[in-house]
């Protein structure tokens, strides 16, 4: 979708001669649009806003194919400066502003969540939003939020990002856990007490209730931790 909303094109001319007709403004617009679209990631959802050339601008008709380039070397969401160059005796270069909006499908809560609530699929809506207006860390993969735990109270309508969710706690501080350790193929079990909350794969401190020794163990599941000596 192309919207010619932005004002102005800056012209730099070299050896300008005004014979042989003028370059079509539509051809310049088409060349810019084609260049920008080809530079963006395939399959994405974009809105491209091209600057409208000054109707008073009269450029000699280019005898060669127009060369289009990004001033920064790449096209990315946001404001871009794009150059169009004509080589030859009547060579000229102009610069135009192109605004690119990138839209992403993101996950939005349809109900408020309290801290430590587990986020289920029925709590999520998928909405298309302007990525430039989204908070950092927004997620587009449902596995990043599904069955995760709310890190704090989250109001309905919030776009979920990685700072708002965490892995669910499966071991609570003070809870009794089974400690498994292995050495040379021999598995030894003991009973301990978790000294902090822990999620799967997280390392926490555990007190062995028999030896009273505090060890570092990895949370395996609810009520179970593992340590290797």
UniProtKB/TrEMBL annotation:
Principal location class: periplasm
Localization: Periplasm
Leader sequence residues: 1-19
Keywords associated with the record: Bacterial flagellum biogenesis, Cell projection, Cilium, Flagellum, Periplasm, Signal
InterPro entries per record: Flagellar_FlgA (IPR039246), FlgA_N (IPR041231), SAF (IPR013974), SAF_FlgA (IPR017585)
GO cellular component: periplasmic space
TM region positions: none
Pfam families for this protein: ChapFlgA (PF13144), ChapFlgA_N (PF17656)
Ranges where the SAF domain occurs: 104-166
GO biological process: bacterial-type flagellum assembly
Function according to Swiss-Prot or TrEMBL: Involved in the assembly process of the P-ring formation. It may associate with FlgF on the rod constituting a structure essential for the P-ring assembly or may act as a modulator protein for the P-ring assembly.
PANTHER family per the UniProt record, alphabetical: FLAGELLA BASAL BODY P-RING FORMATION PROTEIN FLGA (PTHR36307)
Entry similarity comment: Belongs to the FlgA family.
Protein name: Flagella basal body P-ring formation protein FlgA
């Amino acid at each position: 979708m192309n919207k010619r909303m932005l004002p102005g094109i800056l012209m730099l001319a070299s050896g300008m001669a005004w014979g042989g007709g003028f370059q079509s403004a539509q051809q310049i617009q088409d060349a810019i649009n084609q260049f920008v679209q080809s530079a963006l990631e395939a399959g994405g959802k974009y809105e491209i806003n091209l600057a409208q050339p000054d109707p008073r601008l009269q450029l000699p008709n280019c005898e060669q194919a127009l060369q289009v380039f990004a001033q920064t070397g790449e096209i990315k969401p946001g404001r871009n400066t794009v150059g169009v160059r004509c080589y030859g005796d009547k060579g000229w270069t102009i610069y135009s502003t192109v605004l690119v909006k990138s839209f992403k499908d993101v996950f939005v809560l349809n109900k408020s969540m309290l801290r430590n609530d587990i986020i289920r699929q029925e709590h999520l809506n998928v909405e298309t939003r302007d990525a430039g207006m989204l908070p950092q860390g927004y997620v587009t993969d449902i596995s990043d939020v599904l069955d995760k735990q709310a890190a704090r109270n989250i109001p309905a309508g919030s776009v979920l990002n990685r700072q708002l969710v965490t892995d669910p706690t499966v071991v609570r501080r003070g809870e009794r856990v089974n400690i498994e350790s292995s050495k040379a193929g021999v598995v030894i079990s003991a009973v301990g007490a978790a000294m902090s909350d822990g999620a799967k794969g997280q390392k926490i401190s555990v007190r062995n209730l028999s030896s009273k020794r505090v060890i570092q163990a990895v949370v395996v599941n609810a009520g179970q931790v593992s340590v290797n000596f």
